[in-house]
């Protein structure tokens, strides 16, 4: 067809084959494989993003999120975006220019929080631990005493190092110092104990593609009443329009649901199904499953003569950092696992580049048979 003076350039009209992706077993730091029921849910026919039946899906997601996070927080919903979008939503809403934000950095994702808080105008203070360690409560006490921050941000499951930061007593400590506690639970969510209300966590965010066994695309977020008080008494506007809680709340909450953005409808089906699976299994059993499969894996690694990077009491059940033995090329082993066994694992990066592999057993993938497959493949390659 010809328009008035223009001829369509057909050069880029290429004929690509029908999509056919390899059957990878995703045992890296995420994404993990989506549960088959989640994939089925995604394929469910669409309705509109304001359809009464979709509003019910949104309500289910919010209720089930409250179960998975053990919270009564009214504001508990998935941000349309990945875990970083949920992280940014927490920061954009909670941080006002000039606020002192103390970030406990135990790896790369703490650094990311610090960088985002800086961009939103915070007076960022950083305390650090070597990659592979966590803060003791006394260290957090001293830092709060010294910096007197408005917000303390910690990463519960640090995916770059495989460390789980103990959090049980941190919320109480923060209240002593009249400070809000913000927690990154991107890797710990639905894989390890986390009690938002009992641990007095004021804001928490996560992702869809790890413990929840969904594809990437949504970032669950929950704000408690102290965080909401701070947000509602802001002197300045939230700098991000897309992530502004007060606008989002009008879409997610109340009688009149007004358009804010077009929610990724089928991804919300996915997260609903992922959360349904969590509720069906029950948190206690789910956390135990992750712990037992991780321990089974750690024992298998020891049998192969491999060492974990993190002390057992601080290890994340969902993600293990395995030290690369001297003389072994970490990248070559990962490539061989992918090419010959269809198993994806990741290497370390930044301070742990070339020193560890990062191996995830998350959600649907946290199963004994996967551990056996991986250990067998690793053993063959290393021998
Ligand atoms: N925080 C942690 C601890 C993570 O592991 C990740 C991603 O792996 C993120 C934040 C960012 O999440 P996303 O990649 O979904 O944006």
Description:
The chain is 39% helix and 15% strand. The chain contains twelve helices and 14 strands. It has helices at 36-42, 52-69, 83-94, 108-119, 137-147, 170-176, 225-232, 245-252, 265-281, 283-303, 330-341, 368-382; strands at residues 25-26, 75-80, 100-105, 123-128, 151-155, 157-158, 163-164, 180-184, 203-205, 218-223, 319-323, 343-344, 346-347, 356-360. The strands form four sheets. It has a seven-stranded mixed β-sheet with strand order 2-10-9-8-5-3-4, with helices on both faces. It has a three-stranded antiparallel β-sheet with strand order 11-14-13, with helices on one face. A two-stranded parallel sheet has the order 1-12. Strand 3 (100-105), helix 4 and strand 4 form a beta-alpha-beta unit. Helix 10 packs parallel to helix 12 (368-382). The radius of gyration is 22 Å and the shape is globular. The termini are far apart. The site of pyridoxal-5'-phosphate has 15 residues, from helix 3.
């Amino acid at each position: 067809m010809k328009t008035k003076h223009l001829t369509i350039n057909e050069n880029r009209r290429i004929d690509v084959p029908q999509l056919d992706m390899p059957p990878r077993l995703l045992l890296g730091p995420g994404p993990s494989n989506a549960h088959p029921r989640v994939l089925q849910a995604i394929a469910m026919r669409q309705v509109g993003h304001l359809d009464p039946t979709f509003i019910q899906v949104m309500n289910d997601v919010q209720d089930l999120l409250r179960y998975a996070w053990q919270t009564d927080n009214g504001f508990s919903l998935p941000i349309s975006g990945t875990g970083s979008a949920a992280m940014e939503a927490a920061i954009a809403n909670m941080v006002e220019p000039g606020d002192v934000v103390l970030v406990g950095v135990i790896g790369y994702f703490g650094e990311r929080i610090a960088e985002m808080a800086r961009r939103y105008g915070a007076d960022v203070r950083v305390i650090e631990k070597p990659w592979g360690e966590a803060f003791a409560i006394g260290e957090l006490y001293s830092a709060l005493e010294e910096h007197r921050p408005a917000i303390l941000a910690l990463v519960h499951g640090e995916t770059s190092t495989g460390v789980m930061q103990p959090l049980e007593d941190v919320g109480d400590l923060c209240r002593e110092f009249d400070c809000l506690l913000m927690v990154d639970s991107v890797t710990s969510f639905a894989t390890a104990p986390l009690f938002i209300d009992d641990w007095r966590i004021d804001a928490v965010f996560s992702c869809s593609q790890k413990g929840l066994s969904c594809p990437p695309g949504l970032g669950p977020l929950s704000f408690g009443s102290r965080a909401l008080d701070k947000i509602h008494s802001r002197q300045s506007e939230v700098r991000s329009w897309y992530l502004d809680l007060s606008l989002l709340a009008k879409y997610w909450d109340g009688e009149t649901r007004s358009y804010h953005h077009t929610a990724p409808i089928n991804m919300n089906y996915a997260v609903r199904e992922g959360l349904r699976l969590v509720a069906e299994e029950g948190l206690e059993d789910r956390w135990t499953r992750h712990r037992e499969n991780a321990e089974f894996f750690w024992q298998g690694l020891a049998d192969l003569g491999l060492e974990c990077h993190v002390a057992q009491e601080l290890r994340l059940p969902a993600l293990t950092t395995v030290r690369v033995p001297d003389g072994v090329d970490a990248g070559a082993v990962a490539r061989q696992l992918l090419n010959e066994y269809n198993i994806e694992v990741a290497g370390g990066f930044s301070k742990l580049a070339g020193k560890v592999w990062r191996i995830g057993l998350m959600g649907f993938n946290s199963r004994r048979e996967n551990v056996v497959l991986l250990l067998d493949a690793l053993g063959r390659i290393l021998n």
